[in-house]
Design goal:
It is elongated, with a radius of gyration of 19 Å. It is mostly helical. The protein has one domain.
Length: 159
């Protein structure tokens, strides 16, 4: 099962990177249009906002799977390896709960956006599909943390 989660995390990271490339291209075109041709892209800001939301939400999964979140190692330097393992499990459990709450609240927000008929101001794009995808990204991040939490006690942690 963990292989599927890992593949999904990598796919989401690839999609996140593609969204960042889109953000970069839009910004470059918008800046050139604004300052060289005095004709900015009117839809750039709202499109960049949507793409950034996807980029962040999709990037969480691989970061969690690779244990790439910021850690402060002050305490873990002076405790036993056994206590360090307990602290890692506690961090994984906290990540599961945190990302599950994010997924739940963004899922709720997506439903609210759908019910309210929330659209972007310039292009008139519905917002709810992006928010649903953000919720899915947080769900995969919670699953990535769960992979570490449930594999570590069994000694199956991979490097």
């Amino acid at each position: 099962m963990h292989r599927y989660i890992k593949r999904l995390c990598y796919w989401l990271a690839f999609t996140s990177g593609a969204a960042l490339v889109g953000v970069t291209l839009l910004m470059v075109i918008d800046v050139i249009g604004r300052y060289v041709f005095n004709s900015p892209l009117t839809f750039a800001v709202e499109t960049i906002e949507l793409l950034m939301g996807l980029s962040i939400a999709f990037g969480l999964a691989l970061t969690t799977y690779n244990r790439g979140h910021i850690r402060v190692d002050l305490l873990t330097q002076v405790v036993s390896p056994r206590l360090r393992k307990v602290l890692d499990l506690l961090a994984d459990l906290t990540s599961i709960v945190f990302f599950a709450l994010i997924a739940w609240k963004t899922l709720d927000k997506a439903g609210q956006s759908l019910r309210d008929g929330l659209y972007t101001q310039i292009l008139g794009l519905p917002v709810y599909p992006v928010v649903y995808l953000m919720s899915a990204g947080a769900t995969v991040a919670a699953l990535a943390a769960a992979v570490h939490f449930f594999r570590a006690p069994a000694g199956q942690e991979e490097g």
